[in-house]
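User: For my dataset I need records formatted as: sequence, then structure tokens, nothing else. Please produce one.
Assistant:
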Amino acid sequence: MPVFSRFLRYFLAVAQHGSIRRASEHLRIAASAIDRQILQGEESLGTPLFERLPTGLRLTATGELLYAHGKQWSRDLTNMCVQIEDMRGLRRGQVDIAVPDALTRGFLPRLLRAMRTTHPGITICTHVLDNSRIQNTLIDGSVDLALLLNPTHARGLLVRAHKDFPLGFVCLPNHPVAERKSARFSLAMNYPMIMPEPPLALHRQIDILQIDSNLNIHAAASSDNIQMIKSLVREGIGLGILSALDVMEEVTRSELAFIPISNHDLAPLTLALCVDHSRQLSGAARLVISELEKEFLSPTTQPLPAT
């Protein structure tokens, strides 16, 4: 039996989906039943919860207040349930992780596959987001933990582990630059370049480096997607600038070469395992964090050597 009343469950679904019809499809409940519960709730509270618009339903100020508290009650109930399971010695549940696109390949999928074998009762749900959105997603309680690039200081944000990855030029293995052990950023003036664009985390670092070096790199192409930059490099359009983390798999398979940029004023890209310090984590989440912390100490995720 659901702990929350039908009204609150229906209300949260309508608020989330923006219409009774879409909430009906999500809950698999008749739209008329949902509408009736919403109307009865509004009558009981003595105030409307939604504005009825031609394009759908929009929360009123009262509705916004109820929605915020309703989501918090739902999270608190979930946390309580997993704590009860912890007390019973169970190791199951869902763990939500926010990650940037750079981690959709490589060590993270391998780690999740291994955990599926060792902890089959844990369901791990990964949310691939722009890096700029990940920190807020963690702080607002939408996920249990996050792998974040270049985290900024925020109240409640706790970094459990971190690792630095150098930035460098990326090219085909048969390119003349691939023979170098490292290179200055000024090398970019001699070749067609594929430059990173916002919201990629390394765009800001490259922008600062151009200013500090008094260089204005002419881009043959640019992209806000890591995979597209690597594809353009493979097509021979130019050299890319990425982090060692972005090309770890391709360098291992000798598909691409990575040449670290040797400028001392270029900060590396930091990958951090973060949690919300104020949040009580389930046993399942703590297990996942423990495995991730081991991976951060593993040499398989160390910065790549020059090729």
